[in-house]
Design goal:
The complex is a heterodimer.
Chain A lengths: L6 E6 L5 H7 L4 H8 L1 E2 L14 E7 L2 E3 H13 E7 H6 L11 H11 L19 E6 L9 E3 L6 H12 L15
Parallel strand pairs in A: 1-2, 1-3, 3-5, 5-7
Antiparallel strand pairs in A: 4-6
Chain B lengths: L4 H11 L7 H12 L4 H11 L3 H10 L11 E6 L2 H5 L2 H12 L12 E6 L11 E3 L2 E3 L4 H14 L27 E3 L12 H7 L3 H11 L11 H10 L6 E6 L8 H8 L1 H15 L3 E6 L7 H14 L15 E6 L9 H8 L23 E5 H13 L1 H5 L9 E8 L5 E6 L4 H8 L4 E6 L5 E3 L18 E6 L4 H15 L5 H18 L5 H17 L3 H5 L2 H9 L1 H5 L15 H12 L7
Parallel strand pairs in B: 1-2, 5-11, 6-7, 6-9, 7-8, 10-14
Antiparallel strand pairs in B: 1-3, 3-4, 10-11, 12-13, 12-14
The chains are: A alpha/beta, B alpha/beta.
Amino acid sequence: MPATKPRIATTSLAGCFGCHMSLLDIDERILQLAELVDFDKSPIDDYKQFTQHCAVGLIEGGCCNEENVAVLRDFRTHCDVLVSIGDCATMGGIPALRNMVTIEECMQEAYVSGPSVYNPSGKVPDNPEVPLLLDKVYPAHEVVKIDYHLPGCPPPADTLFAALVALLSDEPIKLPYQLIKYD
Amino acid sequence: MTKPSEAVARQACQDVNLDPTRLLDVLHIVQKECRCVDDSAIDAIAAEMGIPRVRVDGAVTFYTFFTKEPVGQITIRLSSDIIDRLQGAQEVADALTDELGIDFGQITADGLFSLHWTSCIGMSDQAPAALVGDTMVTHLTAETARLMVRSLREHKHPPKLVQELGDGKNAHPLVHTMVKNNIRQPGSIIFGPINRGEAIRKALGMTPVEVIRAMKTSRLRGRGGAGFPAGLKWEFTRAATGDRKYIICNADEGEPGTFKDRVLLTELPDRIFAGMTIAGYAIGAQEGIVYLRGEYAYLKPYLEEVLAQRRVEGWLGQDIAGKQGYHFDIRIQLGAGAYICGEETSLISSLEGTRGDPKNRPPFPAQHGYLGYPTVVNNCETLCCVTKILENGAATFSEFGTEQSSGTKLLSISGDCTAPGIYEVEFGVSLQKVLEMAGATQVQAVQVGGPSGQLIGPDQFDRVLCFDDLATGGSIMIFDQSRKILDIVHAFMEFFVEESCGYCTPCRVGNVLLKEGLQRVLDGRGEPADLEQFEQVGAMMKACSRCGLGQTSWRPVVTSLQSFRDQYESRVADDPDGFRRSFDLKKAVATAEKITGRKSVHA
């Protein structure tokens, strides 16, 4: 075992946490992973901020608001290698469906005129707690440089595990057809 | 006064005997009379012809010359081709918008004029040019554009704009155009002496197999660009089984910078029709169709007249030239403004009366072409060569040119040179020689073969024009030192985004990715990774696109990247933090800031 284990960080931006669930699906292999790495900023250990520089950052989800951008840039600054995991990070995914309509229409429908909306003020919320939406949803690589992409919705646990082990052990990745077949 | 579109549509359907393959003719009539093909016309056509509504709707929305919204009584379509732009199309555009008080895509309040951009209209040697109704107006300036609008306001009749007639048959009463041929260098094959009727007489004195053998001996290759051996194509079609066979002349030259077919159709239509008649004899076809690009509609009455004359003289119709049992006739189908229809399978789709979508190959048209019958599609110039091969013999023809590329080639030369126009050169001539002939100096770059060809710099001007080296359908665009390479490439990509039919993803998306990437580089927000991506996207499009459009449309970007790498590299840089330089957070949150009335905390 190396003296200092490489650190990895993970985040879910405009995603559904499904990719993180998939990561947890590696089941008992998480012990094996824990031997290989230490987790830094991640929903898995609930670290809110980076404590050190990391070897790998896993990005779930694209960027739909300004906070996503800030977090993603923070990851770029703190990680040697960034991996986009899942279809939202790699392509925008389901959130990017809103790219078909203007942001004005989106907000109007969501906060004012939608059939299930109760909003007597007729105003769009301007609470600073709510991050400002971007004009459209961007896949991660359109905001920062991304080193690797793992598609899938979500990428299966075996795929994530194989990719991580290959990355951390500096071995060429072996992804048999079954692990990258999505239909 | 316009008639209700429904009645016009029904009558138009009757005029073509409810033949769905003539849908384009119906749409032309409705568009002309009603200035649009609106929903009620579409309903009427679908009902009258008994075809799905979506097929009619699909066709209307596919072709540039058909619109669901009304256009002006007089449509002014200004060519947006790069050559037109470099020669002042923008100033002409500004003058037109100012004089008419409307923007492009709009119609004047009185309904008299509408203004449109359109892809290359085949007048690059007399740019900037516009199509006003069916009338070609060339050598426009801001001043003449204003005068044009003023006189149109008075007489409302575009043909009256023609004051000075062009040379040769352009002055023929049925053509009556200001277009010039600009034949700068006639060669001995295409523009060689005309011996009317001899080619057909000789062909009919041979067996069809012998005619095909002569084509193979001549080593004639298709002149449209791809260079497929013509004899082989004929042989495959002859061998294919089918109750009927067709020979189609591809007169849909849409490759920007190409205008040789326009000159051939003007000056040598007899040669083209004779070539078709011979091809029909060789493959066993009784019907020929000329697919004439919509932009060249002004040539149609004249071409119809030439066909009628040939019928009178016995070169078309029953028992041609006295040959018992050989019947052959030709009709002209007018296109409606779609670059993709120059691709043979798209052309066939269009002839069948549908959107001009390309078809999967195989089966090739030789086996399964127009309406499913074995079909040959040949370029105008190829057909002209056919007659010469029969007149002078295959061996004489193949003495010209190189081993792999026999004969001569017509070049359409445009751009920064003193003598733009048509040059008939032997295959194997160097690009340097061609540039000298055209009077081009201070040349920075040459686009050989149109946007889907390649952009090359002076270090490669010693390369030669032939299928093994610089293959070309004939378009040679010359750019001098004052031009900006990346702007030219960007204009080409805009063209391909516009003209991609959208059927297959590699082409529909690939062209957009390249155009957007190029825009990032032009904006100074590009990264070295963008340049790598250009090459990857190009390779993907080449391998995966359904037809020749997407298989080649990446080439302006990738070939200019090879020839002019420094111009790209000087504009790209890596961001030290690994952030994408093209992402602008301030811009991305601007609308949300406005809606919520609050400033971003991160931007």
